[in-house]
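notes to self, project folder thing:

trying the whole complex as one job this time. last attempt i did each chain seperately and stitching them together was a nightmare. two parts in total, labels are on each line so i dont mix them up again. if this works i'll redo the older ones the same way
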Amino acid sequence: MSELPHTAFSLRRVGALTSNTLRELTRLRVFYVLLLFALLLIGSSFFLARMTFQQEFQVLKDISLGAINILTSVLAIVATARLLPQEIEDRTIYTILAKPVHRGEYMLGKLAGVLLLLAITTLLMSALFLAVLYVREHTVLAETARQMRAAPPDHLEEALRNVRASAFNLNLLPGIAIIFLKAALLAALTLFVSTFATSNIFAVVVMVFVYFIGHLEGTAREYWQQEHGTGWIASTFLGLVALLFPDLQLFNLVDDVVAGTPILPALFAKTAALGGFYVTLYFLLAWAVFYRREL
Amino acid sequence: MTDAITVTSVSKSFPIPFQRRPMVAVRDVSFRVEAGQVYGLLGPNGSGKSTTLKMILGLVRPTRGTTEIFGRDSEFVASRTSVGFLPESPYFPKYLTGEEMLRFYGKVCGLGGSELRTRIDTLLELVRLTNARTRRLGGYSKGMLQRIGLAQALINDPKVVILDEPTAGVDPAGSREIRDLILDLKARGMTVLLSSHLLEQVQEVCDRVGILAQGELVREGPLRELIAIENRTQLVLENASVELIGEIETRALAAGAQVVEKRNSETTLEKLFLEATQSATRR
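result (full assembly):
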């Protein structure tokens, strides 16, 4: 076998690292979060039985989207935080980087593996949630039709329309997409933190702080601007803070979705672009730090 | 002869937090490994062996000096197209089978399809793990893990293999298997650079050695030259009578030579151990 030609970037190398990362993460029994999610849905149905159908659908959406949001965020942080420290501890990182693999390819493979895991988890949880919503919607439709057998057809039609309107709507899909994007952002940021972290616990602790700061940052910024105005120094400072600690509240479109407020395409595009920007930024930072890191 | 590895005036210091003076791990080390040689880098723990190997592999940057593999600076990823590496006691994922592990490393090296399948078959045969190819690594013995580790180092058919303490924690039988594999690689024309503190083993396989102590290369050269005692000669006889030995002694003394030592040849403890354990296994 002759020496293999070396290329600066190889999709095959990245693909191998991605699939290996995904396999490694699935071995951690991360899919237990799905079980947790299913139990949450089943448990909530006991409370939902006592509500009107509008309340029931609203609470179901609230609980489900909230749970998907929390569980994907936790998964993004916990799964990513262990990747680098574990491979260094196991010394398998040496066997990979001693081969003609660029550190950027290695990092990309790791991030892509986590994102794939998050995508699969989000899809499965969403499918479970939408299936429950679909079943409940049809049960309520059937019940309504039975109860309003004697009502005039236009009344029945309106009642059924109300049921459909409060159950599934297309707004749920961009809402779920933004939840995934937020988890992707957290994964990229965790990967960056893990490039200089000495252990996965350290990376998790840092990310927990970042998570809370990210959710409170918007409120703090508004307060600051009201109190101190918006001079260029303050704006630059707040911009820097926003780079280090992403304003996670901007990715919180779930409340609007649950309330039935449509997510405007412009808002969705802006939020998605912001998410993409953060993921790219943190990946590049992670790459830059890891490129110089001595193993 | 072409130089497979060139290490030129390499030093490495690691900064220590809150201290002005850094920790010097390697100090002005230079050596060359010719293609086809087995080179042993010896030294006690903490002497800088692993750091030197990592610098050759581009995992750690030298503070001063350069390292090259077949003329390519180790800083560049392309220098690693012709290298395989087995670190000291790696912890490969237990859930993978031997075959799956090799497939992953093959893909990382850009291999695929029938070429990769053939390569995996060849390597499993070479490291004598064909029968364990579908067994999970969690069920492998330490010796088997080192052998599959060696197979992953060879997956891209490298010209140079770097082994960091390849027999650490392996029992004598496993250790011997790895030693035989190294000799096998040498016979195939491969260059091997290994670090070890098991001197007897190094003596059996290495053509040339370098001895590191506190980060400095204190001895370096062909093994035979380093260990030879110039004014002494060893004569090993089999089935020699007492009279013959006496005659040789007399003639030697008459010629002005001194008989320094006279004793029966001994087997090594390793050979004794292997014979005893192998015969017990056969029973």
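what i see at first glance: Chain A has a mean pLDDT of 85.
need to look closer tmrw
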